[in-house]
Amino acid sequence: MKKKEVPQDPSSLNNFTKELCYAVDETGKYTTDLSTGWNVKTSALDVAWKDIEKRIADAKSKVLQGEVSPILYYMELKLMDMAILSAYTGFFKWTIKRHLKPGKFNKLSDKKLKIYADVFEVSIHKLKNIELNES
Amino acid sequence: MKADFRHVQAAHCENGVTVNLLRQEGVKQITEPLAFGIGSGLFYIYIPLLKINNGPAIAFRTMPGLVFKRTCKALDIPVVRKTFSSKENARTFLDQQLAEGRAVGCQVGVYFLTYFPKEYRFHFNAHNLIVYGKEQDRYLISDPVMETVTSLSDYELERVRFAKGALAPKGQIYFPQKASVVTDEQIKKAIISGIKRNVRDMLRIPGNIAGVSGIKYTANKIKRWRDSLGLDTSKLYLAQLVRMQEEIGTGGGGFRYIYGAFLQESHSYIPKDELLEISQLFTKSGDLWRDAAVQSAGIYKGRLSSQEDFNTVSNYLYEIADIEKQAFTALSKIKW
Hints:
heterodimer; A: mainly alpha; 434 Repressor (Amino-terminal Domain); two-stranded antiparallel sheet; 2 strands; 9% strand; B: alpha+beta; Cathepsin B, Chain A; six-stranded antiparallel sheet; 8 strands
């Protein structure tokens, strides 16, 4: 990449920082320049976020239809998977799998609900009622 | 308490932490390309079956932590590295180091890293930053990928130091201990051993998922993605490939340029003109990684969608594998 080709596209980094890039000058010598962003990268990130939004929406409708417990919705909302949720809550993955069943979830003690609520940064009331979580 | 510290921006977080900490210890010669090359940072691996953020697990650089470790070792600089099971002990230890006027490296997770833009905050736990002081309950932070320094509260720092999941940092702190003066002769030796190790990593790891053969393995996979995964999932996969390649703190195409810069800088320590010629091959490889990203973007943005378009991405990767093989083979043949 030539120094004058270092991309200067708008990106979500714009109010945060510029990125340092290595590129060659006219004489072929390596130098650095700052980049505001590259649209190829920005759109790759957009693709990832669109997928996350879709996962959240899917989880939400499954919860509202009573197919699965609210844990799935909050797990997707916080970009977690089973392994990450297991690490944050201290529950085994198979325990979480059981808690994903609405029947099991409704019988959970407040103590266990609080562990989930703390990890998801919501109240127990909101954990149980995802329609209240519109942020 | 505040260490005498100067923030220098870097392309990649671990290179940056290594450079900034070593400069603090008086290693004047160290630069980002030198740290990256001496630490044999260039790599490629596609780990089959494992999924990250529901996409393929691909890395363009060596394991987190190795650039710092190898660079210090090559320059005979002892390193302190500590992880903690207790948050209190982790904080006390950090405060002690700061009280002694020492800046330290910390491994952190970015999901709760408040100063990062939300779009970048995934559960990624191998980010590195430097804590260089504490003023009125705020820790002074030098994040090497940022232009300027910033700060975090007690709670914010503790949260990122104890992020959980894969590669959980466990409060990890690391720093070089007082170094004796590093001579140019030492740098020269370190460059040679760094290059040799990188040749091994890219050409001689058994199996077909790592190094140059890993790039070919990925090229093969990409050809089949459209049929085996369907168009929508293959778009996600290609976007993930580009993100791993070009995102902050992961590099990729960018890493090839840093390696090219490293070989140029090496030339002033070891005046062998092969280094300059091979440097150009890495520039070429970096350019091709970028071309592959542009072509992939055509697909994940929906402008391109045929099997032929996937083949084009795949062919770029075959070409890259050939060039990188040529470059590392040439490096392996240099008589030092």
